[in-house]
Amino acid sequence: MSSRTVIRGGLVITASDEIHADVLIEDGRIAALAASGTSAAEAFTGERTLDATGKYVIPGGVDAHTHMELPFGGTFASDTFETGTRAAAWGGTTTIVDFAVQSVGHSLREGLDAWHAKAEGNCAIDYAFHMIVSDVNQETLKEMDLLVEEGVTSFKQFMAYPGVFYSDDGQILRAMQRSAENGGLIMMHAENGIAIDVLVEQALARGETDPRYHGEVRKALLEAEATHRAIKLAQVAGAPLYVVHVSAMEAVAELARARDEGLNVFGETCPQYLFLSTDNLAEPDFEGSKYVCSTPLRPKEHQAKLWQGLRTNDLQVVSTDHCPFCFVGQKELGRGDFSKIPNGLPGVENRMDLLHQAVVDGHITRRRWIEIACATPARMFGMYPKKGTIAPGADADVVIYDPHAEQIVSAETHHMNVDYSAYEGKRLTGRVETVLSRGEAVITEREYTGHAGHGVYTPRSTCQYLN
To answer: For the whole model, what pTM was predicted?
Structure first.
């Protein structure tokens, strides 16, 4: 039983092209494109026709940094794989790459198996995994080779969170050396956690307990220092490096310098650093706790440098680092001690719309929007052209996007399982209308028509930017 869908009359936007084209989908994949109104396009037939006149037809978003059900700070991220992937679909994202966690004293395999168990049969959209490496030893290093062979090709390490996820420079170097051999990509949380812990202790001793101090102790210079150190360790190991959630202009400068030297160094930022600032962390009555994440929000002047980095390709990807904790009962764990506030923000549903707003505001072009949100994350993590583009043979992960619709972001209307929105009240131009995942309608004209279990696990090849 073959199934065919035709999308007519839209402006198809990919990272490389914009063309008024009709799209033929067959058995879950893109079968053909043809310029609208031509005889080739008129020959497209299917059981279902979707009218995209006046709309954009874009690839489904690839969010390469999410944390569903993550245990952190004595609690768990509030989105499950079911609620989180459903919310992602509402926001035009059709693939997430989540992080499986190795606990200290346990194997990578145990961590990966645990995350497969959480996700399998529960996801509305397709998913893949990175592996958090918390305990580097000889067995771990051998396991890294095996994971790369089976499609888990990226490994995250932390220079922050001593006693939890932290790796020292020697452990980082060993993992980088291994990835240089097996083709894996090391992803780095670059903050000097040892120094930050000293500043946290000193701030609390002075009675500085409010959420805003979270941003003040996690200094931009300590993000820049760790970014520089990670780059140098990667250079020594001959390994590529991907720095996650870059928030500080000083860290962008380190990445730009390394890339100017021809190093395989890549950088990701997130919407919260592009649209929010320390002003949010300083909101009164503990409201600032809603904005506690790490790396932290920075003063507004950092935003211009992040946008510039996205335009010059010193930053290549915008992911969300979606890691939601409810204000009531979770963020409140840190009342009277900012260091006990669970670190993380909700955002998986907002990313594509916020970045479209950046197009409207003139920060980036339409094609760059698709590049940083769809194509580059797919390439970076070995899923292109199956994901991240609209081309014959690609998965039919397609979004019909209304660039003129207006919306106001609010916790009352979002679909993430969290009791607040980081962008409450923000007016946006542009909205997702219909979302297909492998040809199946998950969102149909602003109604959820998907189901848990449609999303499948997607093994990945190695980074497609390496020679």
So the answer is: 0.98
